[in-house]
Amino acid sequence: MTPPTTLLVFGASGHAKVVLDAIERVATYRVIGLVSKVDTAASRVFGYPVLGDDARVPSILEDLEVDAWEVIRLANKHPRVDILSPGPGVGGHCIPIDPQFLADAHPFATELIQTARRVNARMPNHIVRRVRDHVPSGQRRKIALLGASYKADVDDSRESPSEKLVALFEEHDYETAVYDPIARGFTHGLYPTLEAAVEGADAVVLVVGHRIFKDVDPVAIAPLMRGRLLVDARNFFDAAVWSAAGFTVETLGDGRRRSKQMLAANGR
């Protein structure tokens, strides 16, 4: 008897499923899988190292006392350059997960993917360090996090950077309060209002750039807080407006502002 021919079928449209059903009725074929959107999966594998490389930009340029956002803006004027915006980490159910299947299957041929995963996974640690520079741990200091979904203006909170941020802050004995009027299914729970989240907080961390957060008024929330620190992980807020309201502003990747603040703190 002739052994069955093994097929891997690409496509997940209605037509593809009809073809798959027809193939399975033929005894001489054995279908081992129906792969949906192979081009999307491939782009995730390709894009993950790019995300990891771009994630290193803010920490490198902060140390060099350079504004990463200005560097990225100028670099992207080149027609063949498209550096992505830095942030507090990568989330969602696709980009952080899909490339790992390939890495697990071929660990010795996927060093770049594995390195990118480690770089992206470290970004929440970088945000926590920025907060700890101003708010020492202990005494259950409170940190308010704005945003729980994995990206702006979506409700999906799977694998979101806020998940790891909460765990890291609590590991260092901080209390956390997460506010996100859009996100659903966040495992650590969400505060019902912005005011409740920032009440008594020592710092605010902007994690997700939801459009609705553009309405946050630093003058209004300042009296509710114990401290006056904003860590903006998305370059989302107008730093001058928050500074005028009495906040110390730390913007991820803005090495120039960070350098000035450190000099001022040292009385220089």
Question: Short summary of the structure?
Answer:
This protein is 42% helix and 13% strand. It has 268 residues and is α/β, with parallel strands linked by helices. It has two domains: 5-36, no CATH class; 42-265, 3-Layer(aba) Sandwich (Rossmann fold), CATH 3.40.50.720.
What labels describe this entry?
Rossmann fold; 42% helix; two-stranded parallel sheet; disordered N terminus; five-stranded parallel β-sheet; 2 domains; single chain; 268 residues; alpha/beta; globular
Detail the topology: elements first, then pairings:
Layout: E1 5-10, H1 14-24, E2 29-35, H2 38-63, H3 68-75, H4 98-105, H5 111-132, E3 142-146, H6 161-171, E4 175-179, H7 194-198, E5 203-206, H8 218-221, E6 229-232, H9 239-244, E7 248-251, H10 255-265
Parallel strand pairs: 1-2, 3-4, 3-5, 5-6, 6-7
